[in-house]
């Protein structure tokens, strides 16, 4: 499988996606993440929640790795932000 094209500011977008995703998860009844949860665990949990809620499309089974999950989360938040948001410039 080919590597997804990296977005401009993808790392910052991922950080924002995790922040917004955590709030979304808590609104859905999730107790939240503790400070000891690893970033990769947060990414996978949020990715699976958003796929389950049909807010993002799942990666093909053979391409479902941490890198593609991070990319999908970054793309998701990029679509949620207003066009003039600093992270999209």
TrEMBL record:
InterPro entries: DUF5062 (IPR032036), DUF5062_sf (IPR038316)
The protein's name: DUF5062 family protein
Domain of life: Bacteria
């Amino acid at each position: 499988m080919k590597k997804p094209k990296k977005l401009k500011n993808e790392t910052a977008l991922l950080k924002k996606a995790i922040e917004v995703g955590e709030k979304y998860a808590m609104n859905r009844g999730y107790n939240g993440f503790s400070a000891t949860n690893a970033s990769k665990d947060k990414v996978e949990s949020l990715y699976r929640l958003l796929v389950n809620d049909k807010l993002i499309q799942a990666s093909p089974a053979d391409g479902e790795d941490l890198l593609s999950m991070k990319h999908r989360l970054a793309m998701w938040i990029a679509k949620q932000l207003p066009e003039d948001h600093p992270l999209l410039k």
